[in-house]
Amino acid sequence: MSAIVLGQGDALLIVDLQLDFLPGGKLGVPNGDAVIPPINRLIDLYATRGLPVFASRDWHPERHCSFAGQGGPWPPHCVAGTAGAGFSDQLHLPQDVVIVSKAITEEVDAYSAFNGTGLGDDLRARGVRRVAVCGLATDYCVLNTVLDGIKEGFEILLVAEAARAVDVAPGDGERAMARMLLAGAAPVQLSGPALVADLALGALP
């Protein structure tokens, strides 16, 4: 297993760790709260090295096109300004976290944090070349964010232990992982204490 040491050109992107996507929320991901401890470790790794941390969020209007009442597939969730749209208070976001709001108009949905947000330009302006992606959910917003990040020309590190799937159909999460790896994402794990590195490049757990 190869070691990865973080440095200039690296950034962390946390996808949609909002209360409505956590267990008990309006569109809760099963075991979604299990990602919080590893994500907090990732935040510490990046923030203590002065590397940028981004956090995307759904920030929907009340009549968003993805909601069932407007013909969409999902119950209302992450309505802008509501408690459910907030980040978990267990998530240790740094003070200088960059918030990326997506799907902010009624008529356009966006699973990807790159879709209509200017995220790619922001990353390039900061000299970022490699982005570690984690969060919720593996088979929707993480999947689309990773695929778009690769299309934008970034090297993508996929932190599988810090992501969970909705699995509307059994196996959706595994199929999403396979798609991301086939597209060129590199699977990484948080390094154990024996590794003198930040992340370990290798097979998914």
What would you say the CATH architecture is? 3-Layer(aba) Sandwich
Q: How are strands sequenced across the largest beta sheet? A: 1-8-7-6-5-2-3-4
What's the CATH superfamily, by name?
Isochorismatase-like
Helix share, percent: 10-25%
- The CATH topology is Rossmann fold
N→C terminal distance: 12 Å
Q: Specify the structural class.
A: alpha/beta
**Rough outline:** globular
Number of beta-strand segments: 8
> Biggest sheet: strands, sense, closure?
8 strands, mixed
How much of the sequence lies in strands comes to 15-25%
**Computed Rg:** 16 Å
Report the top-level CATH class: Alpha Beta
Note poorly predicted spans.
none
Could you tell me the mean pLDDT?
92
Number of domains: 1
What is the overall number of helices?
Answer: 4
SSE run: EEHEEHEHEHEE
Detailed description of the structure:
The chain has 205 residues and is an alpha/beta fold. It has a single domain, classed as Rossmann fold. Helices cover 22% and strands 22% of the residues. It has 4 helices and 8 strands, in the order E-E-H-E-E-H-E-H-E-H-E-E. It has helices spanning 36-47, 119-125, 138-151, 172-183; strands spanning 2-4, 10-15, 53-58, 98-102, 130-136, 155-164, 186-190, 199-201. Strands 1-8-7-6-5-2-3-4 form an 8-stranded mixed β-sheet, sandwiched between helices. Helix 3 links the parallel strand 5 and strand 6. The radius of gyration is 16 Å and the shape is globular. It starts with a strand and ends with a strand.
